[in-house]
Design a protein that fits this description.
Elements lengths: L1 H6 L28 H14 L3 H16 L1 H13 L3 E3 L10 E2 L2 E2 L6 E3 L3
Antiparallel strand pairs: 1-4, 2-3
Length: 116
């Protein structure tokens, strides 16, 4: 990072966190085959992961914040999470070896259930 900052090319690099999200439907139904729900969910998740939805939501939120301000962006973001039942994150694990209470930390998997 120091070499990049000294060379003056720091403006070409995006700093900070990038947030994009994918909305997945949560269907409640009775199935004859208990794994039918899992197969359907896997098909939907695979289709959504190969789409540009996460990139599109990230860029759309940037445009909303730039055009209408931080309050409008926060309002839309809060409305989206207020109508979400459960959310998961796929944070990248630490690059260095770290331990928490004597246990090695390999990855971080936060999740939230309920209204914010």
């Amino acid at each position: 990072y120091a070499n990049m900052i000294e060379s003056g090319r720091s403006n070409d690099v995006a700093w900070g966190n990038q947030l994009g999200y994918i909305l997945l439907p949560f269907h409640l139904a009775m199935h004859d085959d208990p794994l039918a729900y899992v197969r359907k969910a896997k098909m939907i998740v695979d289709r959504k992961k190969s789409s540009l939805e996460a990139i599109f939501t990230c860029k759309t939120s940037e445009v909303v914040v730039k055009m209408f301000g931080l309050k409008a962006g926060a309002f839309i973001f809060r409305r989206m999470f207020s109508n979400t039942t459960i959310s998961f994150s796929n944070l990248v694990g630490p690059t260095e070896k770290i331990e928490l209470c004597g246990h090695p930390v390999v990855f971080i998997a936060p999740s939230v259930y309920g209204v914010p």
